[in-house]
Design goal:
Layout (H helix, E strand, L loop, with lengths): L1 H11 L3 E10 L3 E8 L7 H8 L9 E8 L3 H6 L17 E12 L5 E5 L5 E5 L4 E4 L6 E4 L7 E5 L2 E5 L5 E6 L2 H19 L13 H10 L14 E11 L7 E10 L8 H13 L3 H12 L11 H8 L8 E8 L2 E8 L12 H8 L3 H9 L4 E4 L5 H12 L13 E2 L16 E4 L13 E4 L4 E4 L12 H16 L4 H19 L8 H18 L3 H16 L6 H11 L5 H14 L3 H9 L9 H4 L7 H16 L4 H5 L3 H16 L2
Parallel strand pairs: 16-18, 16-19, 17-18
Antiparallel strand pairs: 1-2, 1-13, 3-12, 4-5, 4-6, 4-11, 6-7, 7-8, 9-10, 10-11, 12-13, 14-15, 19-20
Amino acid sequence: MAANSAQKSKQKNRHVEYILLAQFDIDKGSVIKHQFPRPTGVEEQLLAELMLPDGAHKRDDDWTVFFLNRGQAENNANSSDGKKGSLSSGKNSTQKMEAYAYQYSQTDDTQQGWDMLSQDIMSIIIHPNMILINSADGKHNYQIEYHEALEYTQLETMFSCVLVDATTALGLRFTNTSDENVFLNKIDQMIKTAVDPTSTPTPSPAPTKEKEKEKKEATTTTPAEGDEPMPFLYCLNFLHNMKDDTVKRGAVVRSLAVCTRLNYIHIYKPFMMLALQKYFQNPSEEVLADLFDAFNGMDLDQMPRLNYNQKIILRTTTDRTKLVHPTSINYIGRSMSVQIPLHMFPDEVGDYSVITLVQKFGPAVTTIYNALLCQKRVLFIGHGCSAGEVCNYVLAACHTVCPPLTGLIGRVFPYTNLCYLDFLTVPGYVTGVTNPMFEEHPEWWDLCCNINTGKVTLNPSLITDVLDKYASLDADLMAEVNYNVSAHYGEDKVRSIFQDYTQHLIDLVFDEEEFADEATKFTELDLNKVRLEAWKKTITYQHHIANREIRTKMSAIKDPLVAKYVRKLRKKKSLPALEMIGIYTLFLEAIKTEDQLTEFLSYLPESNGGLYPISVSLFHSNQAVRKSAVELLGRINRMTAGSPFASTMNPFLSLAYDRNVKEFSSSA
């Protein structure tokens, strides 16, 4: 019993759950070679496709991201088979094969025959309800679904003709008879099911004992984990294309993936590069075991565990050294330092750049922003781009709304391909692809963001003649963003602008925003009404409601008026002296402990002026107001959490504080 408890404790404290190794096999295609220390439970073919993205052979290296154990997000997509440890809650039933494609041509009675469409072999992906055929260059794309003229003819062994639609005949030369049989059986099934919906699909060939064993191993978890909930895993994947003239195609393509509970996945990059290099030299599971032990040996016991308020404060500080925790990873006989970011929230992944997103899409970034806010289906497409570049834009886009929103990451698929279309059933998915066929299916997306052109296209069915009232507000947002980008204020500053903008919209929904007057409030609510109502129907809204309830219960400051009055001081240019005295009296009563002060300071982010709304009261004409401000600032300065804030006051305000302290000390 004690041993079992110790084992569970060890697993709970583990940073990395799996190390995976995939390889492209000239005969079998993309395959998983190793899953260490045990199978993930995800279908191997799907993992292999994610780890070896389309066009992998065209570049030397690539970095991609995927997620495992999404939980509720994928249960919404398919509730039929919610097995543990799966990428998708439903079983992936696609089959992939290859064939050369031909089109029939006839110029006259003497010149007729089949012309090859492309010198490159075509990819064929069989889904439950359709077949997708596409070329690597994206020039030839076909989708076969049932239609009244659907039929096929086997012209010779491994060469068949199929009517893609009523007027298009496509010839396919397969590389083996097994693939041809699977393809033709699928066409048969589509025809029979349409004629008789109760007909039984043609069964696949019985699996061999070896295949059954592989399947069992791929879906089995260890007994020690059987009753434990599977954690959400962030997976970073590194692909390397090693040139080798002694093998077919002249190169060996392998990729290494790390599946971890930690969202700052970028810290693993240098170690993964070294490990994959070692694997090329010595292709054994021992390489994965060494890396697994090194990552889980990283000491995080001394790392501060910051709460929500502390992270909010840290995100706005100008002292960069306080944003990271230094530690080290021992690997290949050396101790190498790493910097752990302390200010990240779960929906933030890696170190992907919002500035890059802004520079690519310009003013259209606000269209992407509103689509994410309102839970629209967002597709990023980069034909000819690396899968890593596509991932960068997807994850950077998420950073425009998270924080303060949460719950988006469960709907994000940084990279996917035609082999995995289950994500299409996930409400408000965000994904990245390199295959241009996705763009040709507007029924699959609400917003298509073309990385090649920087153009953002709204689904035609969503286009109306009514202009978005909030367009002028978004224009002001982008003006501020562009100014800060051009002035080189940096990534953190740009993210904070989007964060403040999103928080403003949240405050409008919950009537927690302060305005200079009622007319301004009415105008602001009217301009934002459409998107605020849309947000209230989203998953991120439900997450926010749940998080509000938790934070309210755990709040160190029990009086909700404290936050309200802070907002009032920040927005109102002047208030009656009697009201100001009442506000400071409330502050002094509510802020007495370190936790209470930390929460109070989170209402006053440094990026929005920090203590300025308090310190400006040092110039108030009423002596009682000035005295209350001095007492509050003095208390802040004496407490651990507040002294850094007090030290950042500008010299003019500091002099005013000292002058008031002397005045009230002498009159005491």
